[in-house]
Amino acid sequence: MTTVHRLLDDAFAGVEPSPEVQDLKEEIRANLEARAAELESAGATPDAAARRAFDELGDVRAIVADAQADVAEETGGAPRTALQAALAAAEQHRVRPTPRFVLGVVLASLVLAAAVAVAALAPAGVLALPGIAVAALLLTASSAAGFVVGLSLSRETTTNHPMPQGRAGGYYLASGLGAFGLLLALFTALGTFGAWVYVVAGGAVVVGGVLFTMLGVTQTNRKKAWVRDVARAQAAEGHFDRFDRDPAAAARFGVYTLVIWLSAFVVFVVLGLTVGWAWSWLTFVVALAVMMLVLARMLFTSPGEGARDQR
Amino acid sequence: MQRDELPTADDAFSADLLRGHTDTIVLATLRRGDRYGFEIYKTIRDATGGAHEIKEATLYATYRRLTKDGLVEAYWGDESQGGRRKYYRITDAGRAVYRRNVAAWVATRDVVDALLSTDKDTPR
User: Fold this and answer.
1) Residues A267-302: tens digit of each pLDDT
2) ipTM for this prediction
3) Is B92 on the interface with A (CB under 8 A)?
4) Which residue of A has its CA nearest to B86?
5) Inter-chain contacts counted by CB atoms under 8 A, chains A and B
6) Domain annotation covers residue A262
7) A124, part of any domain
8) 0.80 cut: is pTM over it?
9) Has residue A82 been placed in a domain?
10) Do residue B38 and residue A34 have CB atoms under 8 angstroms apart?
11) How many domains does chain A have?
12) Which comes out higher in pLDDT, residue B98 or A20?
């Protein structure tokens, strides 16, 4: 096997060592070793096997030069600004939501809202529903919520390729379980179920969380090539998102978030004690919406504002 | 420049045509699991009966291009003996592009078949 290393070192002698070249050399080395081992098992002597494997590779210098040219091209100057390039690329790759997708999301949202609303009539004392019926309604609602997540992931967007059906199904299950657990816990807190249901709710949330984590760590790239190009151009120009560029803005957002959720909790308790627990949870929905609006305003600045920030 | 010899009957095979689909072929070999360079090369070589192959230099350029476009992700294996192997894994983006390219190939093949009428009377 030493022959492969020697032949490779000879071939790479005089090539300027860069991370890319080193990377390529290691990759070629492992492939040569595998090919040489194959030839040896077919009866060749170690030396002859290494020599033949190396010869089959062809012109190593050309492969290296090719890799170096690619790197040089990548680091070369971009004539357009990152923002212009991004807008042009987004325009070129625009994908509109299909009517089927929009219809699916709207219907699922209606089911979700209707199921939660009807179920909420039980703790509100308006409707005398048996516990099992409320549980079934909550299951329907969480299934609808998971469906929206899964459907959104499995469709092609301007920036993302569609996620394979099986994987999107996993996200459906994970978010559905999580939502079911949270809804169960909420209705238990409202007094619809006995305290033992907290155990079921906790179990659903934990299983959903584990599933989410598993899906998250095994997730591969879904971004389209142009998005990566734009990201690379922006990184080259130093345009990371605003929170990377401006730590003060990130810190400010952190404080805002804390204030929003603290206020939401106080309002939740106050409303719960006065208006009733059936509707006070809406506070958290409002808080989430407010947080997202703040995030959107703070994270994406217009070019003019961006210029002001950089001064 | 000398023209290539006309292919003989048992050599009726277009290497150029094969080479034009290198990206899709590599994506196809990665669909059933992560592989390193030599495994990909071997799969292609064995599928073509060993007589025809895609040059390794072409494959290295292909891996680089696919990685750059986010269609595959590379990672180093942790072999205890010998050199580390660089494995490639197909991404969701890669699967989508693969499916699109296969659909395009099938459509093209059908048109070419129809135009050449291969299934009716292949000229001998």
Assistant:
1) 888 888 888 777 878 888 899 999 899 888 887 765
2) 0.76
3) yes
4) A27
5) 100
6) yes
7) yes
8) no
9) no
10) yes
11) 3
12) B98
Q: Kindly determine whether residue B83 and residue A26, on different chains, have CB atoms separated by under 8 Å.
A: yes
Tokens at B110, concatenated: 């059908």
- Return the pLDDT at A98: 79
Residues A71 and A120 in one domain: no
What is d(CA B61, CA B98) in angstroms, rounded to the nearest whole number? 18
Quote the domain boundaries for residue A56: 2-76
Which residues in chain B land under pLDDT 70?
Answer: 1-13, 51-52, 78-83, 118-124
Say how far apart CA A4 and CA A178 lie, in whole Å.
Answer: 54
Write out the E strands in chain B.
35-36, 72-76, 86-90
Q: Domain check: are A176 and A272 in the same one?
A: no
Give yes or no: residues A72 and A123 share one domain. Answer: no
Which domains are seen in chain B, by residue range?
15-116 (1.10.10.10)
Partners of residue A26 in chain B, C-beta under 8 Å: 76, 83-84, 86
Residues of A in contact with B90 (CB under 8 A): 220
**A4 or A111, which is more confident?**
A111
A contact set with B (CB within 8 A): 1, 23-24, 26-31, 33-35, 38, 56-59, 62-63, 66-67, 70, 74, 156, 161-164, 167, 220-225, 228
In a shared domain, residues A146 and A250: no
